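Now for a sample.
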Amino acid sequence: MMRPLFLSLLLASAAAQAAEGLALRDAIALGLQRSPDIQLQRYAEGASAGARKSSEAAFDTVLTASAGQNRDLRPLRADERARFLAAGVDQDLNVNSYSLGASRQLENGYVLTGAYALTSTRDDVQQAQNIPRQNVDKLSFGLRLPLQKNAGREALAVRNATGLEYQASLRDTEQVVARTVLAVVQAYWDWASRQASAQVALGAEQRVRQLQRETEKLVAADELPPAELNLMQAAVKERETARIGAEQKARDGRFALARLFGMDAVATEALPLPAEILPEQAGASLLESLRQQALERRADLQALRLREQAAQERLAGARLATRPTVDLELGAYYAGLKEGTRANPAAFDPTARTAGPGLSAKLSFSLPMANAATEGPLLTALANADSARLRREALEQSILANVEAAYGNLRAVEAQLASSAVSVERYRAALRDTVTKRQLGTATLIDVLNVEDRLNNAIQGRLAYQLAYVQARATILYETGRLLKPEGQGFTVALEQLLP
């Protein structure tokens, strides 16, 4: 049975989205609902749960029962026919047999058995001698003690390994969810940035068109030469081209996010615009003990550690399997005999004749000379254990390197974000000053357009830094295993960290 995943995220309402825009929470919920990677990992988790259940079969109590009848006809010799005239010409031997049994292997390797067998024999030759039907039963108990090779401990190692592998599959699911969330978050902010960039391009086009209208009035009033209109028309077309390109990039961003949702073209066009805006400044620091947090919290690293433990369990079981089979078998039984015309139990009948307890003991030894059947799996288990250790060590090194890179990137982007805000404000002031100078006749139209260009570039650059900041923040949360947080029996997304 699957454990509940990200249940608290599934709160999105299509009507609310259409009215208010697509919130980041709603985008994540859609991504988690429709992600094929998560569905595939759920199936893998179910397969792992099935393997864990199968590994418990070695310790099941096994019940057995049987019932049978055998009729044997044997021609009598001449001397036998003379002595047993009542038996006829053939000996008719009719045997009915019944049995019940139970056995169970314990985790320490001991095997307990118990059985009850009843045999009822009717022989017409014996009846000719006044010997009635013979009912013989036997109640027996057995204990097998493994002294070297231990099937119980081998099965226990497999059960422990499959249990660890199941826990690893749960961590894998968590990592797939985190990876999906990261992809959705980055695609969402990329679309939001592209949408904001399109709005900036539209604003730049509108400002130039307004400047064109003002220039046309001045030319009509003979205050400016007509040649100024050529420059304005070129500037308007340049801004228009930039706006069309920005709108197409925003459309591409919409489709990139919709692909993560598995949406068709019609559903993509109906997708509401992002409701979140890019942050104007950096949020709270995320830099406390990042390396240690990453090594403790990354789900994929936890999964590899569990698989490394599972490989060690399987290795221990494989080593046990290479030992020779040396078993001590102990047994005790009671037997009973009751004569009569029906198949009746005798061991529990006080009127029947009983014998016991009978005791038995046997020591057995077995070892294939080449032992290839167990040496091969041992070599495989050794290789798998070494491979699991190397994969874990490689991932630890990769995580630490990625955390360092993500940390440096975040700090750089924070500094760029702060500087870009100053740059935009200064260019806005410079544009106002240049417009005033033009009105006073100390600046030209091309001066205004040059400052306008620089302002647009600064605004677009700031949007790029804003996008880089939110994506760097999401990346460092992912790399340190803090993109998801525990909640009840599952986990949820740390939205408060994603929205600085």
Q: What stands out?
A: Residues 61-105+110-149+325-366 form one domain. The longest strand covers residues 90-105. Residues 278 and 491 are 26 Å apart (CA to CA).
